[in-house]
Design brief:
There is one protein chain. By secondary structure, the chain is an alpha/beta fold. It has two domains: 3-59, 5' to 3' exonuclease, C-terminal subdomain (DNA polymerase, domain 1, Orthogonal Bundle); 65-263 and 274-317, P-loop containing nucleotide triphosphate hydrolases (Rossmann fold). Helices cover 41% and strands 22% of the residues. It contains 14 helices and eleven strands. The strands form three sheets. A seven-stranded mixed β-sheet has the order 5-4-6-7-3-10-11, with helices on both faces. Strands 1-2 form a two-stranded antiparallel sheet. The protein has a two-stranded antiparallel ribbon with strand order 8-9. A hairpin with a 2-residue loop joins β10 and β11. The longest helix has 21 residues, at 228-248. One of its GO terms (biological process) is t-circle formation. GO terms for molecular function: ATP binding; ATP-dependent DNA damage sensor activity; four-way junction DNA binding. This is DNA repair protein. Its main location: nucleus.
């Protein structure tokens, strides 16, 4: 919805745009004091703004579980997606990472999960005409330190990776300044990040992508096998917070997940059993995810000039297998 469609004075609309408030849902989740601080408006002006925003939200009710299952996202910016910056991957993702829902990226160690997440942290900063959202990213680390060297390498390679973008535009973007990093060593600090820090960054328009790396680490370390009931309860609380942030701020949410071995016994009970991998945390988590991406490292390599790299495959699954 365009701000001009609301019954507000041009002065209030101009103040809202200067504050970089992207949607009415951002407005209604802020207090009057926060809105006054962000916009510089008087209390009476803020009350008018909140009334108009609340009226608009009633015209656009929250998403339901059935609508999510059908792939219907009745948000203000319905169908919004974040481009990866690669035509092949964007085609696989039907245009990019969807806003307002949780996308899971799983794979074994070394498959390239973090590399893809970092690329999305850069892609989100491009303007809309180049597939971005013209904003930053919040990167939440739950186990390892943030891969700053890999990020710097990706930034240096942007001119060759994004040949569709004018070099002058790439050089004008200060990528590192727009990636906000949080380290959460336990579930308590993760909850604080999602309930306080993330909403503030999103409401101010500083970020438009939320990355959690990784979702399984804390739940695996803090719970034993017989604590599955409490673990599932905490998983639902965590996923609800992510859903709420994604929907309220029309934001793509990417969760990197570990994998676990699944053993399949051969027909001969005395024979060897084969193994494969599947995303960790089981059905309790799987039911909260709208799109699942599975990244695998292959044995083949590709060579260009004096450089070679290992091939990888990315498979997309969702409500229905693709």
């Amino acid at each position: 919805m365009n701000w001009d469609q609301l019954e507000l004075s041009p002065r209030i609309i101009a103040a809202v745009r200067r504050a970089k408030l992207q949607s009415v849902r951002e407005v209604v989740c802020l207090s009057s004091l926060d809105l006054q601080t962000l916009t510089g408006l008087s209390l009476s002006d803020v009350q008018q703004l909140l009334t108009a925003a609340a009226t608009a939200c009633r015209r656009h009710p929250p998403v339901t579980a059935l609508q999510l299952q059908r792939g219907e996202y009745p948000s203000i910016e319905s169908g919004l997606r974040l481009s990866v910056g690669c035509p092949v991957l964007d085609q696989l993702l039907r245009g990019g990472l969807p806003a307002g829902v949780i996308t899971e990226l799983s794979g074994e160690s070394g498959a390239g999960k973090t590399q893809l997440a970092l690329q999305l942290c850069l892609s989100v900063q491009y303007p809309a005409e180049h597939g971005g959202l013209n904003s930053g990213a919040l990167y939440i680390c739950t186990e390892d330190s943030f891969p700053i060297k890999r990020l710097q390498q990706l930034i240096r390679e942007q001119p060759s990776l994004r040949s569709d973008v004018p070099p002058s535009l790439i050089s004008s973007l200060h990528f590192s300044n727009n990636i906000y990093i949080e380290h959460t060593a336990d579930l308590g600090s993760l909850q604080v990040c999602l309930s306080r820090r993330a909403p503030l960054l999103l409401a101010q328009g500083l970020v438009r992508l939320l990355v959690v790396d990784s979702v399984a680490a804390l739940f695996r370390s803090e719970f034993q096998a017989d604590d599955w009931l409490e673990r599932n309860r905490q998983l639902l609380t965590f996923s609800s917070a992510l859903h709420r942030l994604g929907q309220e701020f029309t934001t793509p949410v990417l969760c990197i997940n570990q994998v676990t071995d699944v053993f399949n016994q051969s027909d001969n009970s005395l024979g060897p059993s084969s193994s494969s991998v599947s995303p960790a945390l089981g059905l309790a988590w799987a039911n909260q995810v709208m799109v699942r991406l599975i990244l695998r490292r292959l044995r083949e390599t590709v060579t260009r000039g004096d450089q070679s790299s290992i091939l990888r495959s990315l498979r997309r699954t969702g409500v229905k297998e693709d």
